[in-house]
Amino acid sequence: MRLVPLLILSLLAAPQAWANCAAPFATMFACDIMGRDARVEFCQDVSDADAAKWRYSYNFTSGLGPADLSFQATGYYGSTKYMADDAPFNTSGSGLVNGDHVYAFFATGYETQNLESAQIHVYRSLEDFQSRPESDIQRLYCRPDTVRIDWAGTGPG
Questions:
Q1: Can you give the residue ranges of every domain in the chain?
Q2: pLDDT digits (tens, 9 = 90+) for 37-57
Q3: Does the pLDDT value for residue 108 go beyond 60?
Q4: Rounded to whole angstroms, how far apart are CA atoms 42 and 56?
Q5: For FRET with 60, which of 104, 105, 109, 141 sits at 20 to 30 Å CA-CA?
């Protein structure tokens, strides 16, 4: 019975690898925030074959507690922040609308390889998200070793 305490201890010592995306939602993007005991997750429900009916949610959690901010999005927008056909890295992401604000993530890499960095941005409006990419009101940096991303569901469709 010594295995159970060791398992519990290893889970507590490891980076936050568990998910807040409860079925039928799946993780679209997740990461631990650099320098904080916090984690963010963008979730998508793709259980309906009609992509127009997909639902998205956002969870921001500090420590082991319940989500500090959690909502089901009223809108979803893909984004390409920096893109060049010949570049080894491109930055793309997705934004979820909640009220007037847009909560977005951007990942710099190329498809499923070479993840260079990832960030969380919050914008005051959809217009800021779409037209003024450097106008974010909050920016958090992800620990690269904790990033989980579904590249197929990221960026413009």
A1: 18-153
A2: 999 999 888 787 776 677 888
A3: yes
A4: 7
A5: 109
CB of 32 within 8 A of CB of 20?
A: no
Give the Cα separation of 59 and 100 in Å (integer): 17
Give residue 21's pLDDT band: very low, low, confident or very high (50, 70, 90).
Answer: confident
Angle at alpha carbon of residue 20, lines to 8 and 147, rounded to 5°: 85
Q: What does pTM read for this prediction?
A: 0.77
H or E, element range at 8? helix 3-13
Q: Is 121 exposed, middle or buried (0-12, 13-18, 19+ CB in 10 A)?
A: buried
Single-letter amino acid code for the residue at 15: P
Which tokens hold the place of 18?
């568990």
- Per the CB < 8 A criterion, the answer to whether 113 and 37 are in contact is no
